[in-house]
């Protein structure tokens, strides 16, 4: 970060930096640092947002997409103990649960019946390393590891008529290869490149799988495998402005190298009762919108930028005016098990508000049209065949706009 990042910006200077980013296609690192430091000023933030919306329109037109999904938390056991998480449970908790394959099949049947296409698998990191009970549970079913069991669960979802997208924490290259057989895409939130957050007292001190180098390595290996991959930044867990900018550039540089980052999620931290970070002050909606806008300018007009609508339900219009082009997965069936206190908007509400703000809502698969139509080598042939059967010539879900009415 340059020393000029701490120099206060005038509105004219901010507008100049934004205009130069639009001309160049992306924002430079030093310029991003200066604009990031100015996001607390409403006038300067609005200049960044206006530029981001123009960038989005240049690359994505008026389209904003979403994926209709079911959320399957295959196991909520996890060896990590992040200070803000309510998802992870200990084996002796009455809320601890690992899905049997017939439970996965039941959720999939409900999803298919309601028009869902994406089976979103989220689960804790490597619980078999920490818990003998889970090792025994897996062994009784013929599996040595959670990723091996997950692969079979994805098979059940795929054969049941859905397209899996998996976020299982840290996976090896071999594990990602196995999951590729059944998944349209994989993902891992980078969250932050801040090593400070892993120090004693930090939110990731007891979370070995949150070490930035470990997460970056998995992003790189997914790129080497050519897997369509979701990443993102988590805002407000103690990181600095400079560390946020570094995180965004780490994601961009990975995509510059491998071309596999299918979307960047901008997710605000919400403090939850019962956690060590329950008393933290959440980031305000206007600041979140500012970071969505900065993410767009860093990523440029052609990449996909997402913000979850259930984490800012009162300000969807503010987010739409900040350069996003995707709402992510929205389920008419299941909770967001990571943020169970935050219900999804109905698809009808999402459509009405998106279109009232001047955008066109379309439904996508758990992979975007560019990859699906233009990069066949990134998919198992059976997965790509199943995906192509569901989309129109542009790669959007056939009839998806009408179904969201």
Report on the architecture of this protein:
This protein has 405 residues and is an alpha/beta fold. It has one domain: TIM Barrel, CATH 3.20.20.70. 42% of the residues lie in helices and 13% in strands. Strands 1, 2, 3, 4, 5, 6, 7, 8 and 9 form a 9-stranded parallel beta sheet that branches. Helix 1 runs parallel beside helix 3, helix 2 packs antiparallel against helix 11 and helix 9 packs parallel to helix 10. The radius of gyration is 20 Å and the shape is globular.
The CATH topology assignment is TIM Barrel
Kindly report the average pLDDT value.
Answer: 95
**Helix-strand category:** alpha/beta
User: Order of SSEs, N→C?
Assistant: HHHEHEHHHEHEHEHEHEHEHEHHH
- Total count of helical runs of at least 4 residues: 16
Q: Helical content, roughly?
A: 40-55%
Shape: globular
Q: Can you identify the CATH superfamily?
A: Aldolase class I
The tally of beta strands, per DSSP, is 9
Radius of gyration: 20 Å
Termini Cα gap: 46 Å
């Amino acid at each position: 970060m340059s020393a000029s990042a701490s120099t206060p910006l005038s509105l004219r200077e901010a507008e100049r930096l934004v205009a130069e980013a639009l001309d160049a296609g992306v924002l430079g690192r030093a310029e991003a640092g200066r604009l990031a430091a100015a996001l607390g000023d409403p006038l300067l933030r609005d200049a960044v947002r206006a530029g981001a919306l123009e960038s989005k329109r240049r690359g994505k037109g008026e389209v904003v997409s979403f994926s209709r999904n079911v959320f399957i938390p295959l196991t909520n056991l996890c060896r990590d103990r992040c200070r803000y998480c309510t998802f992870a449970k200990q084996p002796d908790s009455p809320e601890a649960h690992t899905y049997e394959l017939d439970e996965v099949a039941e959720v999939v049947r409900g999803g298919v019946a309601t028009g869902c296409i994406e089976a979103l698998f989220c689960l804790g990191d490597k619980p078999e390393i920490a818990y003998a009970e889970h090792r025994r549970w897996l062994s009784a079913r013929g599996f040595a590891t959670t990723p091996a069991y997950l692969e079979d669960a994805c098979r059940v979802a795929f054969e049941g008529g859905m397209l899996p997208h998996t976020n299982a924490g840290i996976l090896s290259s071999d594990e990602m290869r196995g999951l590729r057989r059944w998944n349209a895409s994989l993902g891992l939130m980078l969250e932050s490149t801040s090593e400070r957050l892993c120090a004693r007292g930090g939110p990731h001190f007891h979370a070995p799988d949150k070490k930035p180098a470990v997460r970056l390595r998995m992003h790189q290996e997914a790129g080497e495998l050519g897997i369509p991959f979701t990443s993102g930044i988590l805002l407000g867990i103690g990181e600095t402005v400079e560390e946020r900018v570094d995180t965004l550039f780490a994601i961009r540089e990975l995509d510059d190298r491998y071309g596999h980052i299918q979307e960047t999620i901008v997710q605000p931290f919400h403090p939850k009762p019962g956690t060590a970070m329950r008393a933290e002050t959440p980031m305000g909606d206007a600041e979140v919108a500012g970071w969505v806008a900065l993410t767009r300018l860093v990523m440029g007009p052609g990449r996909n930028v997402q913000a979850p609508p259930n984490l800012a339900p009162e300000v969807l219009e503010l987010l739409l005016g900040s350069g996003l082009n995707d709402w992510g997965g929205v389920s008419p069936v299941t909770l967001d098990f990571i943020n169970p206190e935050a219900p999804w908007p109905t698809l009808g509400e999402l459509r009405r508000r998106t279109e009232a703000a001047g955008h066109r809502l379309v439904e996508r698969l758990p992979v975007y049209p560019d990859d699906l139509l233009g990069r066949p080598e990134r998919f198992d042939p059976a997965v790509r065949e199943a995906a192509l059967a569901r989309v129109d010539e542009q790669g959007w879900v056939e009839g998806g706009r009408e179904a969201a009415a």
